[in-house]
Write a structure and sequence with these properties.
The protein is of the alpha/beta class. The chain is built from 5 helices and 9 strands. It binds flavin-adenine dinucleotide (FAD).
């Protein structure tokens, strides 16, 4: 998908103009993709999904730590219009959920609408022209409507006390659930309201509850 209109013989300036879309969606996680599917089902094809990562999936693309799985039964954790009778377990693991999202993306023909590696850096409402001016890493757009679906957890929120631990090594930032490297069984686990600060012999990182208490299914 191109980010600017193609130049034509009659309009040589088209290449330098932002590409206009009816709807622009920020984020290709469950929320953004669900929005995209509903647009298609309503007959709207003039839309783009901007995704800063290299593929769709959001949470389930980014988090691959051992034991990563959903906290609610999988049958509830899927699109109502794309139920999955083939979940392998009650609480599906990350690879299964990611595979589900990829399948839905293909089945609903979303690929041509998705721009990966395309972080939105600003979206400013243009009152005079009744449209959004959107800047992305891949170029500029204008849009009648912008749907914000960047995810509640896609930006790590590092507690101040842990930030201090990370400070001395700026080139080696504090690992998060989405960025950590598996080093082996941690020697100590501290649980705090569903989120665990997992302290291993050589690293400090943050893991979800699924890492701390095993699921029944
Ligand atoms: C390990 C883990 C387990 C979870 N388990 C459950 C569960 O069992 N049940 C539950 O209800 N919830 C669970 N959640 C919460 C989960 O985040 C939501 O359920 C849901 O997946 C969020 O979907 P989303 O589309 O809103 O956000 P995300 O999946 O985070 O997707 C947002 C996308 O927006 C992209 N993005 C962000 N900013 C920009 C930008 N500026 N430009 C372009 N793209 C951008 C991100 O890269 C990301 O791909 C879990 C979260 C984690 C991390």
């Amino acid at each position: 998908m191109t980010t600017t209109a193609q130049p034509t013989e009659t309009d040589p300036t088209a290449a330098t103009r932002p590409r206009h879309v009816r709807v622009g969606i920020i984020g290709a996680g469950f929320a953004g993709l669900g929005m995209a599917i509903r647009l298609k089902q309503s007959g709207v094809e003039d839309f783009v999904v901007w995704e800063r990562d290299s593929d769709v999936g959001g949470t389930w693309w980014a988090n691959t730590y051992p034991g990563c799985q959903c906290d609610v039964p999988s049958h509830l954790y899927s699109f109502s219009f794309a139920l999955n009778p083939d979940w392998g377990r009650t609480y599906a693991t990350q690879p299964e959920i990611e595979a589900y999202i990829l399948r839905v993306t293909e089945e609903y023909g979303l690929r041509p609408h998705v721009e990966t590696g395309c972080a939105v850096t600003s979206a400013i409402w243009d009152e005079a022209n009744d449209r959004w001016n959107v800047r992305t890493e891949k170029g500029e757009y204008t849009a009648d409507v912008v749907v914000s679906a960047p995810g509640p957890l896609s930006e790590p929120s590092i507690p101040r006390c842990l930030r201090r631990i990370a400070m001395p090594r700026p080139a080696n930032p504090l690992p998060t659930m989405a960025t950590w490297t598996w080093l082996g069984e941690p020697s100590c686990r501290v649980v705090c309201e569903g989120v665990a600060a997992v302290v291993s012999r050589s690293s400090v990182s943050v893991a979800g509850i699924s890492f701390v208490s095993p699921r029944c299914g």
